[in-house]
Amino acid sequence: MKSKIVFMDTNSTNNNNFYYIDELIIKSKDLKEGNTVIAYQEDDEWDAEVAFINNRWGVMLKSEARTISKERYEGHQEGYWEGCYSERKILLQLLEKLQASEELISKVKTWMGVV
Description:
By secondary structure, this protein is of the alpha+beta class.
C-alpha cells in the first residue's frame, strides 16, 4: 500500500522529534495513530509515523531527511497552490450562500489577494 503524504513544518515541534500536524489534515486523509506516512517540507521528506501526544496530532520522524526529486517538488507546489485556490473558492461560495454583504465579500477578496 502506498504511504500517504503530509506536509509538516519543522518549526512546529515539541523538540522530541514530534512535529505537529493540523487535525483537519489527519481527518481529511483518514489517518490514525500509528499509520506510516511520508512527511515533507519544501524539498525534503522523511518516513514518519502518525502520533497523538499531549492532545495534539503530529508525526514522529523515523528516518533521516531525503531530498525529493525536482518533479515531486513541483507536484507538491502545484498541489499546495491548487489546495489554496480551492479553499478560497469554497470560502467565497460560502459567503455568497450566507448572503454576506458585497462589502464583506470585497474585503475578503482583497485580503486573499484575489482582487
